[in-house]
Amino acid sequence: MAQTWDAIIVGGGHNGLVCAAYLAKAGRKVLVLERRHVLGGAAVSEEVHPGFTFSVCSYVVSLLRPWIIRDLQLSRFGLELIPLECSFLPLPDGRSLARWDDAERTRREIAGFSQRDSEVYPEFGQAMAQMARVVKPLIDAPAPKPGSLHPRDLAELLKLGKHIGGVSAEHRLLLSKMMTMSAADFLDEWFESDVLKAPMSVSGIIGTFQGVRSPGTAYVLLHHYMGEIDGAFRSWGFSKGGTGQISNAIAAAARHYGAEIRTEAAIDHVMVSGGRATGVVLEDGTELRAKTVVSSVDPNRTFLKMVGKQHLPDDFVTQIGRYKLRGSSGKVNLAVDRLPSFSSRPGLGGHLRGDIAICPSVEYLERAYDQAKYGEFSSRPYLNVVVPSVVDPSVAPPGQHVISCFVQYAPYNLKTGPESWPEHREAFGDAVVDTLAEYVPDLKESILHRQVLTPWDLEQEFGLTEGNIFHGELSLEQLAFQRPAPGWAHYKTPLNALWMCGSGTHPGGGIMGACGALAARAMLTGRHV
Amino acid sequence: MSTSGSANVVVIGGGHNGLVCATLLARAGRQVTLLERRGFLGGLAAGEEFHPGFRSAGVHLDTAFFRPALAAELDLEHHGLRWREREAAVYAPDLAGGDPVVLYPDDVEATAGGLQTHSDSDGSAYRSWCSDVGRLGGFLRGVLDAPPPDVDSRTLGALWELGKKGLALRRLGQRDMAELLRVGPMCVADWLNERFATDRLKVLLAVSAITSAWTGPWSAGTALPLLVAQATRSRSVQGGPAALVDALTAAARAAGVTLRTDCEVQRLLIEDGVVKGVRLQDGEELEAGHVASSCDPKQLLLDLVSPRDLPPVLVRRGLAWRNRGTTAVVHLALDGPLHFTGCEKAVPDGLVERAILGTDIDSLERAFDPVKYGELPDRPCLEVSVPSVSSQGIAPMAPKGQHVVTIQAHFVPYGLAGGWNEDRRQELRECVLKTLACYAPDAPGRVLAAQVLTPYDLEQRYRLSGGHLQHGEHTLDQFLHLRPNPECARYATPLKGLWMCGSGSHPGGGVTGMPGALGARSML
After folding, report:
1. Residues B115, B18: one domain?
2. CA–CA gap between residue B125 and residue A446 (Å, rounded)
């Protein structure tokens, strides 16, 4: 009989690795199994073209919880974050807006478009930062349990009530509006100029199959004010060496604490016997036994593919079947032989040391969404572009660059079916390059290599069901105590000894690590592992 | 200055909510004067002659949401109100001429039975959906028919009320509570797609979620309006809104309310934050200790109260209030009945009273898309009513054999790019008739006269800001204690003596009578 583990973690993405590191640190015998040849899941760096390292999927980081960085001493294991300096919005008419770390500089830039908005902007930032402070405890703790009459849960709920009750009435109103309004409507209350409203509202739709005018998209604005790097509030950053370095650092920490990690170990299914998970069977037939199995892959894949309906209550299967994963975004990575030069701000400049938004107006974004609703990719999509090689020369040969374009909308469910994506892949890549070339005139000549990832590719390559980068939409009914299903938001599953620790659990997607850490904590405190 | 005595309370607006509020106040012994700008009472529920011999039944045709308990409290049956024996069936005709999908609002079994011909599973799916919604409905009615929770107060009474709401929610049981919290913020398309297969059944149900909304069926938060509509629907009034208005008017008179029509309020008289009365357009001033306004919040806060009398926070709230009208109303005088293709078998006498024209959920979403850009849809979703069918023999609305058709067209933007003018109005008329003709080919040829009310016309005619029929969008952030804003949500306002009692207050628009009733109760 083979070795027995305390816990087998399915999936070597950042959450799986964080969970493994915490369990190993607590002295448990842990094995992480990753299907691909590299670790990191969607937080991965790969040399896709000789000499060019791409952050293939996820490309910026802000929400990685500082307490996890401290607990796991990630800096010691190679984590190095470089803050973004700027948010840049080029416009088709040759004008542009850059928002900088420097408040006065930003004010002057905005005043070029609207004096009024330039005055409101800092006020808005303050209000958002305060809101973020209200919401932040929610992402650092397990989801509340409304309806539970257990004294401990009631006490938690009361504490939460007190916390929110302690906020001023005006801020409480702002918070309820944020939780329910559309990002565009919400920003309409503050600003008049599209150059602010368009790039700010997009944070509400990232990874979601909604438009900026869809209710419920405003709260994601907060995410942008919740990020912190080295304690500095409201910063986004690159990871030196690409986002994969984050995963590598966490993996190094996990190994340091004694976890074993195997790559190219694809799991066929979870073994179930006597009503409990007892281990996993690999695709090559190897059986690995463990006291607990922890899945960091998305709920759909975990329950409907790896476990199987027959081992789960019908109700739960229905709930998981209703869980919405509709992927809506793709990724285009370019290796280029020169610095991308924007016609609105030619040459090298601070504006390239941050993120660049291609979304000239709210209407532009909404039209991109309308097209996607009926099963087409947007012919003029929203792009979030970064050129990490400007701040981190290690990712490209000297003088050459990598350009990463996050693209929305690319609906998983194409009119012609998701499996028809490969036929549309190059047309999709062309739409992205054409769009960007409107702002960077010599882009097309400079391309050495183009990597196009459609939602279908994200599913096939990275195991993200329907290509959803957050393991499920971050819509109100799929958050907190309802993620991934009402009653099952605390990492435990209806199958004994099977746990969840991926982005499909509270507090959700993005490189936070909180899902993995909170899951580990839940298992350890309950002595389930 | 002329003073017409010192009426205790002035109620602004003679729509159904104003009438309910005035009557309840008068019954409690207050001296009440109700002021209506137009020449007759009823507001959006008032019937009017729009072509010689043809009367419309008003803009808000559905009376099934008027609360029976309130009708009983007001003794409306003594004042001539009769409930319908059978609710009108709602048809979704087939574009290709096949069988219609039929919804019988008061008969789950008949509806489920009919659905069998369209889908094997939808009959039972409809039964179980109705029973699920029914369980949640009890809790929702409790929430909707009481003043909104006072979330900011720390008094024992407020906490007790809040606690009771929490307990009522808890009493639903874990499962139903979870379902309510799950469905509430969802989009109606997802919810209906989870439950049903028949496209036109989904259209019939989804339409109540998008009426007067600035959201399409794929927008989050649209499941809640459907849930609310299902939970609060009961019996309709025989004779429609006009008959309801007649009964309400009689009740108001009997209670001693002074009803004054052709009285347009110019502004409120306010001294040091205290309401002293109102000034009419003709210069007359009426003194009052209390003023209850049933007009929409934007109009009240931004037009009727001078900015120097209003706390700045309320000016801000008034400006932030979202009331972008998206529904146009078209009244048609028809030289004969309205025949929908394919409905002959289902409706033996050929007289369809209500129909909803749309092929599937996406057709509703496509009708919504252009609104965002201030454009007209190619094919709007039409809610068609033929009120003259049920009024035959009671109070005829049209000459014998002829009919009145009222169409609510979704989505038609108030803020049309380039603005509304006669050409654009004609364009809308053609667009509506063309869409109608797809389902009822001979209808356009039978039109004797058409009255087209764009959202802009509705604003002018009914003095309705934004042309919004609900006085403000029904979205989660304009719901409960946020309707119309935290300062005014419990009917009182920061101005002493000024109250709200219209659709802009909880529980919102539609002919429910509840904002008027809850407003009056708060005042008492």
Report:
1. no
2. 57
Number of domain units in chain B = 2
Domain endpoint, select from B171, B204, B232: B232
Q: Does residue B395 sit within a domain?
A: no
Chain B: nearest CA to A280, how far in angstroms? 32
B188, B219, B478: best to mutate for the A interface, most A CBs within 10 A: B219
A103 touches chain B (CB under 8 A): no
* Cis? peptide before B494, omega within 30° of 0: no
Whether B409 is covered by a domain: the verdict is: no
The architecture in CATH of the region A326-465 reads Alpha-Beta Complex (3.90)
pLDDT recorded at residue B2: 37
Of the two residues B165 and A351, the one the predictor is more confident about is A351
If asked whether residues B315 and B247 sit together in one domain, one would say: yes
Q: Which pLDDT does position B78 carry in this prediction?
A: 96
Question: Which stretch of A424-438, B111-125, B159-173, B274-288 has the lowest confidence by average pLDDT?
Answer: B159-173
Cβ–Cβ gap A173/B365 under 8 Å: no
> What ipTM does this complex have?
0.91
Which parts of chain A register pLDDT below 50?
A: 1, 233
Q: Degrees (nearest 5) of the Cα angle A156, A158, A159?
A: 65
- The helix-helix angle for B223-232 and B122-144 (nearest 10°) equals 80
Contact criterion met (CB < 8 Å) for A210 and B220: yes
Cβ-defined contact of B477 to A487 (cutoff 8 Å): no
Can you give the pLDDT at residue A1? 46
Alpha helices in A151-243 (DSSP H): 151-165, 169-180, 183-188, 194-201, 223-226
Sheet with B447-453, edge to edge strand ranges? B101-103, B90-92, B354-357, B381-385, B403-410, B327-334, B447-453
**Which residue, among A343, A340, A266, has the nearest Cα to A305 in the 3D structure?**
A266
Q: Where are the domains of chain A?
A: 4-45+56-82+240-322+474-525, 85-234, 326-465
Q: Name the nearest CA neighbour of B63 among B18, B108, B16.
A: B16
Q: How many CA atoms lie within 13 A of A525 on its CB side?
A: 10
Interface contact A215-B220, CB threshold 8 A: yes
Grouping H, G, I as helix, E, B as strand and the rest as coil, residue A297 is coil
Q: What does the pLDDT average to over B441-450?
A: 96
Q: Tell me the pLDDT tens digit for each residue of B75-108.
A: 999 999 999 999 999 999 999 999 999 999 999 9
What the block records as the tokens of B327 is 């529904």
d(CA B413, CA B371) in angstroms, rounded, equals: 5
Domain encompassing residue B137: 105-232
Domain closes at, from B232, B258, B285:
B232
CATH of the domain at B504: 3.50.50.60
Structural tokens at position A109: 């830039």
Asked whether residue B132 falls in the same domain as residue B226, the answer is: yes
Q: How many CB pairs under 8 A join A and B?
A: 84
Question: What residues form DSSP beta bridges with A75?
Answer: none
pLDDT tens per residue across span B499-519: 999 999 999 999 999 999 999
CA B303 to chain centre: 23
Question: What Å distances lie between residue B60 and B56, B225, B327, B447, CA to CA?
Answer: 11, 16, 11, 22
Distance CA A74, CA A17 (A): 12
| H or E stretch covering A279 | strand A276-282
A303 contact partners, CB below 8 Å, separation of at least 6 = A309, A312, A316, A317, A320, A493
Give the per-residue pLDDT at B3.
Answer: 40
pLDDT band at residue B1 using 50, 70 and 90 as cut-offs: very low
Domain spanning A4-45+56-82+240-322+474-525, CATH class:
alpha beta
Give yes or no for A255 touching B (CB within 8 A): no
A101 lies within 8 A of chain B by CB: no
